[in-house]
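Hi all, a correction to my earlier message: I attached the wrong file for Polysaccharide deacetylase family protein. Here's the right sequence:
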Amino acid sequence: MSHYKLFALACTLFFASYSSSYAQNTTWNNKQCAVVLTYDDAIDVDLDNVVPALDSVKLRGTFYLIGSSPVVARRLPEWRRAAQRGHELGNHALMHPCDGSLPGRGFVTPDNDLSKYTVSRAVSEIRATNTLLNAIDGKTARTFAYPCGDLQIGGVKFYDQLKTDFVAARGVTDGLQTAAQVDLTNVDAYSINGQSAEYMLDLVKKAQQSHTVLVFLFHGVGGGHALNVDLKAHRQLLRYLKAHEKEIWVAPMVEVAEKIKAAQQGASTSKPSK
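and the right structure:
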């Protein structure tokens, strides 16, 4: 191969790499990566521990609310104030139905067994929860989180009927992904249950190095749920994110998903037609 051809190949590879890196940084608001902090189930510690912790460092998260949760009804003004401060109130269904036919699902009650639902019932309950959330925060754009990570009813993906109702849906599968790799109908997330601050910070650093999106899935923070993360470990994570906010974009799921959606649409329209 001639020197000219080698030079041309090197230039092509460089600009391809640069273009890919530039596209990712643009998607993540011109930062190295995106980090999304999500909190499931609408429990008291969300308002007692998490919202104050996030507000103290001026970071925003996504709270996936169960429509029927007594904590939603009892503390509705506090949820509204959280939304006013920029936190997303996401949809975690009306009754949090999970598939009771799967192994290890002894906690599922007959009334909330997704395997006994019809698709239309699941869709109707999720839309009813959207109506409730809209009454709380006045917003129409939001994301969904699958209860227990269950995607199907009788082999049918019920979210297929809800794609126009949401910007995206968060799942429960671990993974760091570029914008092009993200499936907005089932966004990857790392479930945290007892892991250390070091574990969480290592994930953030990997996201920075790979220019990917990292989604954390929390339940209890400092108690309040069988799935829990230590309050100190959670605080260490927030401090790191705040200290590196020039390199890390921390935003609610709906905002990150909207950026990813725009990037994917832009990439598809820029492809030459065959």
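Sorry for the mix-up. Residues 30-269 form a domain with the TIM Barrel fold (CATH 3.20.20.370).
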